[in-house]
Design a protein that fits this description.
319 residues, four-stranded parallel sheet, cytoplasm, seven-stranded mixed sheet, 2 domains, Rossmann fold, alpha/beta, 11 helices
């Protein structure tokens, strides 16, 4: 192992830059050359590689997004496209590749490994939807971004005695809604993993009003969607002014939290260690506070389990 490359793929997540920094500086410390790949798999196919040194990753640990940028790449989904990517790495003399992204990015890394490229994946996604790891890079920062937003919404909702329905990211994973909902004292948390009754929701809101509640906060995961439609329904059924707020891509930005910076740094260091050990087609994670690594196929096949205990706690605390 003499030269490695690093790329970011899929949706950006706070902490990706910290991971890039850790990969680059760890590799240089161990005597390896490092190449950065711009625009993910698209840049890899197009040969957008450049050498990186310690200065390349100076003053980036606090920045959101990714300095390497990211892009969609339909061509990489084809066998021809992947072979072109493998050929580019061979031309540049790259022996190993670190891929920072989500499940789609990991699938790409797995397919590249079958073409003789040593690949290691780091979980960079705010959704926290990878079952093999307790936390993904960017999840904690996204939670703090959501919490800051709902704290502000509570102020105006209290003034107007409104119901606020806040839609957050997460696709088919309700972790952002659940964790931010508990931290923000939400009266209702609606996630894809659990069925919910609109009429029961309205009943809870009306009961709260009778108890003197000035406002209600409802967290809604985007995997269910329809925040505006739900707001209209609640207002019609309860007679209480209801507003929907869709936070959208604001959740992807911002300076990463301490947790995400440290997590990304630990994972980036581990990725380089694995490559030096001759490992390939592995993904780095964290379980019970310890950095782990798993086979990509096995990691992607693990069925995600919803935190029923935390959800039950949220139901108790919302009353």
């Amino acid at each position: 192992m003499r030269k490695i490359a690093v790329l970011t793929s899929g949706g950006d997540a706070p902490g990706m830059n910290a991971a890039i920094r850790a990969v680059v500086r760890t590799a240089l410390d161990k005597g390896l050359e490092v190449m950065g790949v711009q625009r993910g798999y698209s840049g890899l196919i197009n040969g957008e590689l450049f050498p990186m040194d310690r200065h390349s990753v100076s003053d980036i640990i606090q920045k959101g997004g990714t300095i390497l940028r990211t892009a969609r790449c339909p061509e990489f989904k084809t066998e021809e496209g992947r072979q072109k990517a493998a050929n580019v790495l061979k031309v540049y003399g790259v022996d190993g590749l670190v891929v920072i992204g989500g499940d789609g990015s990991f699938t790409g890394a797995r397919l590249l490994s079958k073409l003789g490229v040593a690949t290691i994946g780091l979980p960079g996604t705010i959704d926290n939807d990878l079952a093999y790891t307790d936390y993904t890079i960017g999840f904690d920062t996204a939670l703090n971004t959501v919490l800051d937003a709902i704290n502000k919404l509570r102020d105006t909702s209290s003034s107007h005695e409104r119901v606020s329905i806040v839609e957050v990211m997460g696709r088919s994973c309700g972790d952002i809604a659940l964790h931010a909902g508990i931290a923000g004292g939400a009266e209702g948390i609606i996630v894809p993993e659990k069925e919910f009754d609109q009429e029961q929701l309205c009943k809870v809101i009306l009961e709260g009003k009778l108890k003197g509640k000035l406002h209600n906060l409802i967290m809604l995961a985007e995997g269910i969607g329809g925040a505006n439609e739900l707001a209209q329904y609640v207002e019609e059924m309860t007679g209480i002014e209801t507003r929907a707020t869709i936070l959208g891509h604001i959740q992807r930005g911002g300076s990463p939290s301490v947790f995400d910076r440290v997590l990304a740094s630990r994972m980036g260091y581990k990725a380089v260690e694995l490559l030096l050990e001759g490992k390939s087609a592995r993904v780095v994670g964290i379980r019970e506070g310890k950095i782990t690594d798993d086979d990509i196929d096995e990691a992607l096949s693990i069925e995600r389990t919803f935190d029923e205990e935390l959800y039950a706690i949220s139901k108790v605390l919302s009353h």
